[in-house]
Design a protein that fits this description.
Shape: globular
Structural class: alpha/beta
Order of helices and strands: HHEHEHHEHEHEHH
Radius of gyration: 18 Å
CATH architecture: 3-Layer(aba) Sandwich
CATH class: Alpha Beta
Number of strands: 5
Strand content: 5-15%
Distance between the termini: 60 Å
Number of domains: 1
Helix content: 40-55%
Strand order of the largest sheet: 2-1-3-4-5
CATH superfamily: Glucose-6-phosphate isomerase like protein, domain 1
Largest sheet: 5 strands, parallel
């Protein structure tokens, strides 16, 4: 068999074994964060850093459906000056948690990507998120590592081949972004951009609409 074809078949098999229940719980967590006007904060290293940035981009742009208000999303991998500053002045394991402490607000959600699930900077960020009551998502591979144990919601890609784990992570993130966009489309009357500038607190208006 051609090696390229073999690789593709392995990825397809990995996708077919992806557990549905954890994926659904993550999709629900993303929607809940949008409902409360929280920010979806994403992080990861290496290939996972690229996926984190890509995911934040798709969450912020692909989900736009006027007149619904937009999704708040950012990646902790996008500021090279901040990442190099924390790495140089403190340690690389601090690059995400230090940013998180500056940016995170109540109601936000942290999404951590790690093939091994054991990246120290990812683990530290999720640990801090748990300590302050931030919902956390861990998307992993291999045996899940520490991240699968720590995250509020965990999804493990059942593969020990890093490129294939990263392939599936990318597809999962695409699927989650598309799904969130469809959820927003299905609930266009829920909240609009104008709601952000109204006098009544956002959470009170949301509760009021749920009751009607």
């Amino acid at each position: 068999m051609n090696q390229l074809t073999h690789y593709f078949r392995q990825v397809m098999h990995t996708l077919q074994t992806l557990p549905q229940a954890p994926l659904d719980r993550i999709a629900e967590a993303l929607w809940s964060t949008y409902e409360r006007d929280g920010t979806i904060i994403v992080c990861g290293n290496g290939g996972s850093a690229a996926t984190a940035s890509h995911f934040a981009c798709d969450l912020a742009k692909w989900t736009i459906h006027p007149p619904a208000r937009r999704v708040r999303a950012l990646a902790l991998t996008d500021s090279v000056p901040l990442m190099t500053a924390w790495s140089n002045d403190q340690e690389y394991a601090a690059v995400f948690v230090e940013q998180l402490q500056s940016l995170a607000r109540p109601g936000d959600l942290l999404v951590a990507l790690s093939g091994s699930g054991n990246s120290p900077n990812v683990v530290r960020a999720v640990t801090w998120g748990n300590q302050v009551g931030l919902p956390t998502i861990g998307i992993t591979g291999f045996d899940g590592g520490q991240l699968a144990e720590l995250a509020t919601f965990a999804l493990r890609v059942e593969s020990y081949v890093m490129p294939q784990v990263e392939d599936v992570h990318s597809m999962v993130c695409h699927a989650l972004a598309v799904n969130l966009g469809l959820e927003i489309t299905a609930n266009l009357t829920f909240l609009t951009t104008a709601d952000l500038f109204a006098d009544e607190p956002l959470h009170e208006r949301a509760v009021g609409r749920d009751a009607t």
